[in-house]
Amino acid sequence: MSSKILLVEDDRSIATVITAALEDEGFVLHHCESIAARDRLLSEHSFDTMLTDVMLGDGDGIASLDSARAIDPDMPVIVISAQNTLDTAVRASEHDAFEYLPKPFDLDELVRAVRQAAGQRSGAEPLPVSEGDGMPLVGRSPAMQGVYRMITRVLRNDLTVLVTGESGTGKELVAEAIHQLGARKSGPFVAVNTAAIPSELIESELFGHEKGAFTGAVAQTIGKFEQANGGTLFLDEIGDMPAEAQTRLLRALQSGRIRRVGGRQEIAVDVRIIAATNRDLAPMIAEGRFREDLFYRLNVVPIELPPLRERREDIEVLTQHFFGQAAEDGLPRRQISREALDILALRRWRGNVRELRNVVYRLALLAREDVVDIDGLNEILGPEGEGAPEQRKRDFEGALQLWLADNHPAPGALYYSALAAFEKPLMEYALAQTGGNQLRASKLLGINRNTLRKRLSELAINADRFTRPL
Ligand SMILES: Nc1ncnc2c1ncn2[C@@H]1O[C@H](COP(=O)(O)OP(=O)(O)OP(=O)(O)O)[C@@H](O)[C@H]1O
Fold first, then answer.
1. pLDDT digits (tens, 9 = 90+) for 251-289
2. What is the pLDDT of residues 195-243, one digit of tens each?
3. What is the set of domains in the chain, with CATH numbers?
4. Could you tell me the distance, in angstroms and rounded to a whole number, from the CA of residue 204 to the centre of ligand 1?
5. 211, exposed or middle or buried, with CB in 10 Å at 0-12, 13-18, 19+?
6. Quick check: CB of 76 below 6 Å from ligand 1?
7. Least buried of 189, 211, 378, 386, by fewest C-beta within 10 Å?
8. Nearest to residue 361, comparing CAs of 321, 311, 316?
9. What residue's CA is closest to ligand 1, atom 27?
């Protein structure tokens, strides 16, 4: 049976194009132009998916979603908007939109999103490939929402931003997003990895040099500050910057002027600075290895990126995003089964999003089937790292020793109380991985669904707590 789609759009020409594209694909379209008409239609019919514009004649398509949800709480909603900012993206995801498509969007992308949304409503497998929402940063976890919110606060000003987080968490991507979505987007984005430059060359790299300033300075060279004039300068690995360069950088930030190495003239530069580090700067400041005054200059707006293991719910959408990217890069277009994805999410992800991206590319390249399943995954990825099982065993034993030391179970209760202590986090983990879906959690655990339900009740675990919005 064809899926029924409700389109809320007051621009007739856009509505006509969308209707034609979706009807071609076999969807049945109902169209209205206002929030009032939308709510009337919703109370009369059931729809598989709703597509809504944001700025409508009688209100805001996102803010008013609550009244639509009051009528149909489970219907996936796709927001289409001309306000191409993270702000709208953030608002859309705060209102649990299934997808957010900034205008102008590709019709194929729209069709894919609608198919995916309508499929999700009917529980179709395997997961379709998601092409993302055109935004540079992918992920809808609460942790990333916090990051998006901070990004939106710095788009309309030039405040200096310090992005912190482990290697591979997306710090450079955040800097790029601030640049691309902010007022300086027409200017250059210049990235410097200060850790990768020999310390004697850092100043010349940042500020440039005059001809003959030092041996080898055969011509005048413009530094990164001047290259970034009118745009954004991204200073990566700021914690690794040598002391002398820190002092020069501080001076440049205070005065808004730079001097080329070997030069006399001070040159005014107009750059927005975004710095990043994967180091904890506080102990470095205490040990005198990082200037405290420079830290305060840089840390005007701190944005902290959480490690991937603290936002495992993003692994699904990131995986699909990277399968899409891999296909664009000429690798075979693959998908992943729900079960394999659940296993993938269990890995440690020490290398964070970068590691996930590399793993997905490896799967795209090496998988034998179009849909990567658990066997394919295990065959290609194998166990995590050399000696990892041994390490994990020690981790486990250590945790058990600690638990025994802390809990002193009563004689005769040792076996079952230890088992329950172990079982509870395990089941909670399986529920978290599967968004509270007990059938999938039981498959992931490899136990009978009824056994799971019984144990959940005995261990007083509330599965609803793990339910994810669509
Ligand atoms: N939220 C995200 N959505 C999509 N891609 C991401 C996301 N986060 C990171 N990536 C991708 O992961 C890779 C690593 O990200 P990035 O280089 O920004 O990390 P980083 O924190 O700056 O790392 P390092 O500290 O090692 O410099 C890049 O390919 C980037 O595009």
1. 999 999 999 989 999 999 999 999 999 999 999 999 999
2. 878 777 888 999 999 888 777 777 888 999 999 999 999 999 999 888 8
3. 1-124 (3.40.50.2300), 142-304 (3.40.50.300), 398-466 (1.10.10.60)
4. 27
5. exposed
6. no
7. 386
8. 321
9. 167
Strands 55-56 and 59-60, by their bridges, are antiparallel
Q: Count CB-CB contacts under 10 A for residue 428.
A: 18
As for the ipTM of the complex, it is: 0.98
Q: Which residue has the tokens 């005014």?
A: 268
Confidence of residue 125 (pLDDT cuts 50, 70, 90): very low
Could you tell me if the CB of 209 is within 6 A of ligand 1?
no
Q: Name the nearest CA neighbour of 464 among 437, 433, 425.
A: 437
